[in-house]
Write a structure and sequence with these properties.
Structural class: alpha/beta
Largest sheet: 6 strands, mixed
Order of helices and strands: EEEHEEEHHHEHEEEHHH
Strand order of the largest sheet: 6-7-8-3-9-10
Number of strands: 10
Strand content: 15-25%
Length: about 260
């Protein structure tokens, strides 16, 4: 029986080494069920690597990483975890509707339910008017929304979204964040959403702040500001970075250069 009080994502001593470099360094955190959790940090800090680990597509992962009580990447999670990558993952020679219909079939959604689910997903991402346009003729932002619609098919329990609002206009960004919160509130889904834009932090119920392969903070936006004595999440992040640098310099951390190299890539 599923333990509904257990976290949606549970990580302990999570580590990823790639090409001889440590990309993720001993991460330990929990993502509560039914929440919108933001994974924030500068480009190159390891956010995408962590998301790939959560959905089970990242190689050379050590430590403990469980999703909905099962090892990340388990076959039983395939229909329960939706994933949107930074690069849209759709077929350009199919229409938006055809893409969703194809992926609905792959997910095993019964034929009698597919049309309704496809229509609902297109409406959720405000693409109904472009449903029959070839994906190759859509803008970058519209392509990203097709990928998001694919991830919504089947009402997954966990949605892992890698920078889903990049390149979108402010109105659409607001509407998508409202959608994310409705999905969490109405469906009880858990959303893990990455961004390098700090002003999106206040749209999240909880934050994981990352730098150079490590988690600097795991807190709510309000508690993070209170704890650091700052007025914004960006200021809190910068204070935590300065504190981390001070600890590294005092401790002469031998891994510091590797982590800073990763942050620049």
């Amino acid at each position: 029986m599923m333990n509904k009080s257990a976290p949606a994502v549970h990580a302990r001593d999570l580590r990823v080494v790639r090409g001889g470099r440590t990309v993720l360094e001993d991460l330990s955190f929990d993502v509560p069920r039914g929440t919108v959790t933001g994974l924030l940090g500068p480009s190159g800090c390891g956010k995408s690597t962590l998301m790939r680990a959560v959905v089970g597509t990242q190689a050379k992962v050590t430590g403990t990483l469980e999703v909905l009580g099962a090892p990340a990447g388990s076959a039983q999670l395939r229909s329960r975890v939706g994933y949107v990558t930074q690069a849209p993952s759709v077929y350009l020679d199919l229409t938006a509707r055809q893409n969703l219909d194809y992926f609905a079939a792959v997910l095993g959604i019964p034929r009698r339910d597919r049309a309704d689910q496809v229509a609902a997903a297109l409406a959720d991402v405000d693409l109904t008017s472009h449903a029959d346009a070839l994906a190759g003729n859509l803008s970058g932002g519209q392509l990203g929304r097709v990928s998001l619609a694919v991830a919504l098919l089947g009402a997954p329990d966990v949605l892992v979204l890698d920078e889903p609002t990049v390149g979108l206009d402010p109105v659409l960004r607001r509407d998508l964040w409202n959608l994310f919160h409705r999905i969490a509130a109405d469906r009880g889904a858990t959303l893990l959403i990455s961004s390098h834009v700090m002003d999106e932090a206040d749209r999240c119920e909880r934050l994981l702040l990352m730098r150079a392969g490590r988690i600097l903070a795991d807190d709510t936006p309000d508690d993070l500001r209170t704890r650091t004595g700052t007025e914004s999440v960006e200021a809190a992040f910068l204070r935590l970075v300065d504190e981390a640098r001070g600890r590294e310099e005092r401790g002469a951390d031998p891994r510091r250069q590797d982590l800073e190299n990763e942050a620049r890539t």
